[in-house]
Amino acid sequence: MKLLVVGSGLIGAQRIQALTKLRAVSEVAVFDPKLSEGTRLSPKATVVNEQAAFSKKYDAAIVATPHDTAVELLPKIFPLAPNVLVEKPLGRNGAETENLIVAAKKSGSRVFVGLNYRFLKNVQHLHKLLSSGEHGKVLSVDAVLSHGAQPGYEKSWKTDPVRCGGGVCIDPGIHLFDLFVWMFGSAELTAGHLSRQFWQIQVEDHASLVLTLPGGAPASVNLSLSSWQSRMEITVETEKAQFLLRGRGKFYGPQRLTIVTKWPWLQPDQPRETLFDYGMEDVSLQQETEEFINACTNPTAALTIATAADAPQIHANRRRLLHETT
């Protein structure tokens, strides 16, 4: 397979290395205006100029650029590749998302969205437990996703409302919104509060949200860009057990999932808690890239990776959030 990768920043570089490891991939053309033409980024990846990048056909393409740049480039890329993976969020708002989906359909291009938290080992385990139905219906969910950014973050494109499209609700919050849709089927915003507490920026750096899941279960989400201890935590209460998901590797700590027994004194021969520790290694982006390539060659394969069809609901909640909260 021959691929085009647009953007070789933090995520783009990881995608390139992931592609290089795959036998199905023979050649990767990389376009990034910050890099010199002809630069070899891996045994399979070479930097090309803009004219060369957008004058050929490819088996697939990956777009890993700031959100505003992606919106401009995608309509040009769809006619070049039947399969396109774009890093979250596929449009800065609902209207852009819909326009991009229409453009992709006109070109006959399948669109996938980079939301690699679906591939975290503890998340995969939790999804399997919930999908089994063995633990009864979901009663409530509490989730936290936060980090402390870094010095100078106020100058980043991620805090520019025009370039990014939002603050903590877009990055990293969109990962939680996606996981809610993937794990529970849907999640409707009920109430929320957005604020700027630490960073001198024009977008929110904190968000406290209340959502309703199918069946009426409440869910709370807290997001922050000034948490000096990075946190990813999801607690799910069900009729028969409680699940405690913690960490995603790196500064967030090891990927762990704890299953807590209901009324343990009634089952003295059973452990109170069962801990599954998946360690610090995060291979989620590698696995997501592998599944994307597999989907390109096997259109009927069962998918974990997010697709364009998942994006509109996420943006619908965000639109409601911006218009109805304080």
Q: What would your notes on this structure say?
A:
This protein is of the alpha/beta class and 326 residues long. The chain has helices at 10-20, 50-53, 67-77, 94-107, 121-132, 173-184, 284-297, 311-324, and strands spanning 2-6, 27-31, 45-47, 60-63, 83-87, 110-114, 138-146, 188-195, 206-212, 218-224, 231-238, 241-246, 256-261, 273-277, 306-307. The chain is built from eight helices and 15 strands. It has an eight-stranded mixed beta sheet with strand order 8-9-10-7-11-12-13-14. A hairpin with a 5-residue loop joins strand 9 and strand 10. The longest helix has 14 residues, at 94-107.
Structural class: alpha/beta
List low-pLDDT spans: none
Average pLDDT: 94
Total helices: the number is: 8
Tally of strands: 15
Helix content: 25-40%
- Rg, Cα atoms, Å: 20 Å
Beta fraction of the residues?
25-35%
Report on the biggest sheet: 8 strands, mixed
Shape: globular
Biggest sheet strand line-up = 8-9-10-7-11-12-13-14
How would you describe the oligomerization state of the chains in this entry? Answer: single chain
Give the N-to-C terminal Cα separation: 49 Å
String of helices and strands = EHEEHEHEHEHEHEEEEEEEHEH
